[in-house]
Amino acid sequence: MSLVVTGIGELVTNDAALGEGPLGILRNAAIVVDGDSVAWVGSADSAPDADRRTDVAGRAVIPGFVDSHSHLVFAGDRADEFAARMAGQPYTGGGIARTVAATRAATDEELLSRLRSLVGEMRRQGTTTIEIKSGYGLDVEQEARLLRVARDVTSETTFLGAHVVPPEFASRRSDYVDLVTGEMLAACAPYARWADVFCEPASPHAFDGEESRTVLSAARAAGLGLRVHGNQLSAGPGVQLAVEFGAASVDHCTYLTDSDVAALAGGTTVATLLPGVEFSTRSPYPDARRLIEAGVTVALATDCNPGSCFTSSMPFVIALAVREMRMTPAEALWSATAGGALALRRDDIGRIGVGTRADLAVLEAPSYVHLAYRPGVPLASALTLQE
Ligand code: NIG
Ligand code: FE
Predict the structure, then answer these.
(1) What is the per-residue burial (b if ≥16 Cβ within 10 Å, else e) of 26-59?
(2) I need a surface site. Which of 91, 219, 259, 306 has the fewest CB within 10 A?
(3) How far is the CA of 194 from the centre of ligand 2 (A)?
(4) Residue 125's closest CA among 379, 385, 384?
(5) CATH class of domain segment(s) 65-343
(6) pTM of the entire predicted model
(7) Residues with C-beta less than 6 Å from any ligand 1 atom
């Protein structure tokens, strides 16, 4: 079944060879979709015919957002922690244990129903690819269960047994690292594409540089791609480890030294910024301009989770990136789409061209600039191709 989408007032392709500027913008454009992929892109005047037609009446169309960092499989609520932070409490990661207790007690059906509702929320805001981490189970069966549940909605699943040391292992941390890198990794690897570690010496709950190195080595040996939560609360060793291990992405990057920026510059490890976290923890924002000017590839993602940032909205993240981190609207859109695709090492998403996946978002607006210009307004939605 093929479909031609006409009347696209502004089409962002993210391919400079297809259109104007770095976002490869086409005006008065059309797209032909065949099955799951894009078969043709060009001017509406020369669009070929297809089985079905839909006209978007001058709206903008962009590649669907690639949310390359989320923690969507959980139970419980931590609104009280958010309220306490707004009254001055710092974020330390300590509340993760509360979500672990609630998640362990939930049934698969409860987890899946919450997950599906969050995924629906994301699609209604223009997101078409979602990476989802485990990390609220923290024992062998529970971590494998969370990944199996996540697999129902995405192939971009990440094993995060090394999220924090669970309370029952607080006095024997190295036993927990042994469990994560042994039995837990073996049980989880079949359901995961990636492994991640919360590398943060400033948090008593997370992992230091040596522990993180042990986790990354074992995950690499198990054939998983690597990602790192790094430099969220302090200028710790996360970025350097991510680069050394050839991780696809190091996420947060709130506190960076000059040598962190130099290590990332021109390399293949993407710096994924999560400004919703700084918003929701009242922390200083990462220095996006410093990274971009050094030649670092920057992605934007939500980090949607019940603790540090409970937004599912990539448009909100774009608005923060533009207003608070001084990214241009074009840089922010690119980072939320093509940047996210690079953070997941994917070349079939994050751009629109012949052969890419037909993951499109349509905006109730004439231009992508409105995503930041009209913050909080529900402009974006994933284009549903099947009726
Ligand atoms: O990316 N930093 C560690 N993990 C999450 C927060 C998880 C939570 O607080 O529940 C994050 O911010
Ligand atoms: Fe996270």
Answers:
(1) beebbbbbeeeebbbbbebeebeebeeebebeeb
(2) 259
(3) 14
(4) 379
(5) alpha beta
(6) 0.98
(7) 71, 93, 95-96, 99, 198, 229, 232, 277, 303, 305-308
Nearest CA to ligand 1 atom 3: 198
Quick one: CATH architecture of 2-64+351-382? Roll (2.30)
* For helices 140-151 and 96-105, angle between their N-to-C axes, nearest 10 degrees: 80
pLDDT tens track for 358-376: 999 999 999 999 999 999 9
Closest CA to 230 of 259, 201, 268, 187: 201
Query: Measuring from atom 7 of ligand 1, which residue has the nearest CA?
Result: 307
Whose tokens are 């061209």? That residue is: 353
Residue nearest to atom 9 of ligand 1 (CA): 307
pLDDT digits (tens, 9 = 90+) for 122-132: 999 999 999 99
Chain position carrying tokens 């269960």: 145
Mean of pLDDT over the chain: 97
CA distance 351 to 285: 27
**In the chain, domain spans:** 2-64+351-382, 65-343
Q: Which atom of ligand 1 is nearest to the CA of 69?
A: 1
Distance CA(329)–CA(55), nearest Å, equals 26
